[in-house]
Amino acid sequence: MKSAKPPIDQPIQARDIRSAIEEQHRHLLQTEDPPGQIGIQQRDTAWLVTVDLPHKQVKLVAKALPSSAGFPEGIPPAWEIHNKLREQCPVVCAMSVPFLGVDPDRSLLFLGFVEGRPLSVAMRRTLSLASVSGPVSQSVRQVGQYLQSLHTLDPAALGITPRLRPNRVFVERFEEIFSDPVIQRWLPSSYRATDQILGRVSDGFLDRSQERFSLVDFQPKNVLVDPDGNAHVIDINYFLGHPAINLAVFLVNIAMIGLYRPTPRVRSRLAAWQRIFLDGYMRVDPNTPRWVANDLVFFYPFIILDLFWWHLRRRPQFKLYLGWFYGRLLRDFLVELNEGKTDRPVSIGIDRYRCSAVSAG
Question: Which residue has the higher pLDDT, 79 or 306?
Fold first, then answer.
């Protein structure tokens, strides 16, 4: 079966989506009735499709077929992996969108529709509220629980053998970006050496290998919150990677919501959501802190630097501002990690779980 994405110079066309639904309506819509009017609206990287049937209206989502580049050769395509993960884990099944079908000739994938708004939008709209408790915080905690449930699933049970790359493969890139003058200028003079982080990781970190099912684009914009406040993850493009990387990406993306409003009040609210997400993740399985929290001490600052570099390539005209924003994130994390200033607004509580991991291990 074909699984390649359409070339960049040949984007998905509305007519291809319409043709696919007309040809596969029995399978995609679970009906013998031919579709009537088909409305198609692009939303970011997906297309919302509304189909009129004789007695009802059906909504579904069309996307480009995801790549399986994060897996070795011969691995099932992403939608097959998605279905198997939903079968194995009730949490993943309840919080992910169902797969409806695929049109390999048109490089299209169809998913179930969830009524809701992106978690990132919900978070921005509640930044000014006095209390952090409420539906948004509930959704953030659910996402942490979802990710931990995903990470507990064994790739070998699906016939996938992890590559098991040691953590040391990430160190060179970390050291390269850490030494960038744009970042260095925002760090205290005593924290301008990578030893401030590498010296705090647990014994055996460099040679340790941990790979689990992870999501390629796991961030708040790819989580929908329904009217009841329940979270639904809409990314089904998986890869095998270190669980702490997925965890760190989501944590840093929460902080990035403050990129356009970097006030102390906003930073404090985002830090609270970071703690809620991390707490939701860590409390699912009491054994999780034994290794994830320790490795997060490296991967959280690694992702800060990696996203800084990614952002800088796309917005080079904002180099100084981006350096200030990400440099401050890194600075505050280093101060918290080394001085234990847990009252700082961006404290996310990594060291609390790390300490419990040390005592439990």
Answer: 306
The neighbouring-strand residues paired with 47 are: 42, 62
Can you tell me the distance from the alpha carbon of 207 to that of 223, in angstroms, rounded to the nearest whole number? Answer: 33
Non-local CB neighbours of 113 within 8 Å, separated by 6+ positions: 48, 59, 60, 61, 97
Region at 160 (left for phi over 0; alpha for psi -120 to 50; beta for the rest): beta
**What structural domains does the chain harbor?**
14-112 (3.30.200), 117-360 (3.90.1200.10)
pTM, two decimals, is 0.87
Quick check: 46 and 108 in contact, CB under 8 A? no
**HSE of 335 in the Cβ direction (CA atoms, 13 Å)?**
17
Written as six digits, the tokens of 270 are 């985002």
The label of the residue with tokens 């630097």 reads 305
Helix axis angle for 292-314 and 171-178, nearest 10°, is 50
- List pLDDT tens digits, range 156-169: 888 888 778 899 99
